[in-house]
Predict the structure.
Amino acid sequence: MGALACVGTGVYFEYRKREKLAEIASEVKSYGKPALGGPFVMFNQDGVPVTDASYHGKFVLLYFGFTFCPDICPNELVKMGKVIDALDKKTLPLEPVFISLDPARDTLGQLKNYGQDFHPKFQWLTGTKDQIASVTRAFRVYFSKVDENDDNDEDYLVDHSIVMYLLSPTGEFLEFYTQRSTVTDIVASIEKNMKDNKKK
Ligand code: NI
């Protein structure tokens, strides 16, 4: 295996990821809530079919990644776990959902096994290539398979946007968080969004 990194595989990829993020950020600024997200059909780590509606009634923190990601995804998933625990203490339940960008290697067995290292509340979703293409388009997630060496089909990285999305109990996009957002920042923002949502 060559030097493994989940990001930083090139200036072009960095550019594409930042462009996607800038797109989302500018829309949040101009229109309040951008039209991010939408219906999706996938299945969870137990092979149970799920849709966006499966999570209605709960606030959801959604993250896209791949289980073979060497460090960025694990760091972000640990961060999400801390956010969940902090909110649980305040009896503000939040549903963490992971969507795989690498369905070829992220099989149900792999997702289940991987999930043991993270917060038990996590739902680990995967689907067909088309289902993943559709949900990533809806959330404007950038991802691209990076071949480290062409002679080994199983040895590759997936360069991808590192963004967490907060969704309302009706599945509406509320907020996004980047790699730079701290646990404290995210908890405070989610708490505020939960309070604002109650007033509606
Ligand atoms: Ni990653």
In short: The radius of gyration is 16 Å. Residues 1-5 have pLDDT under 50 and may be disordered. The pocket of nickel (II) ion is lined by residues 6, 65-66, 69, 72-73, 160 (CB under 6 Å). The beta strands are 41-43, 49-51, 59-65, 94-100, 123-125, 143-147, 156-160, 163-167, 173-178.
